[in-house]
């Protein structure tokens, strides 16, 4: 089955709203989907990573530069 990626752009979204939006999007993923999240570096990145690690979500960094980071979250089977 082909993997489908959904995109969530949270650049310029303040904490903790970006954590909430990310969590809601992850809850809606089906087994063949991944979620690509764009975040600002700094507090938004730290808060999202910390909160979602605590919730046992797995992710990897796809890209990052001085201002933004792109994470890929995998659906838990």
TrEMBL record:
* Transmembrane region(s): none
Where does the record place the UPF0033 domain? 8-71
Q: Which domain of life is it from?
A: Bacteria
Which protein is depicted? UPF0033 domain-containing protein
Q: Which organism is it from?
A: Prochlorococcus marinus subsp. pastoris (strain CCMP1986 / NIES-2087 / MED4)
């Amino acid at each position: 089955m082909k993997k489908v990626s959904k995109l969530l752009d949270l650049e310029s979204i303040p904490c903790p709203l970006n954590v909430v939006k990310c969590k809601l999007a992850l809850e809606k993923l089906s087994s063949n989907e991944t979620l690509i999240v764009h975040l600002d570096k700094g507090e938004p990145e730290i808060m999202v990573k910390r909160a979602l690690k605590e919730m046992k979500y797995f992710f990897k960094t796809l890209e990052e530069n001085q201002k933004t980071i792109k994470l890929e979250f995998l659906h838990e089977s």
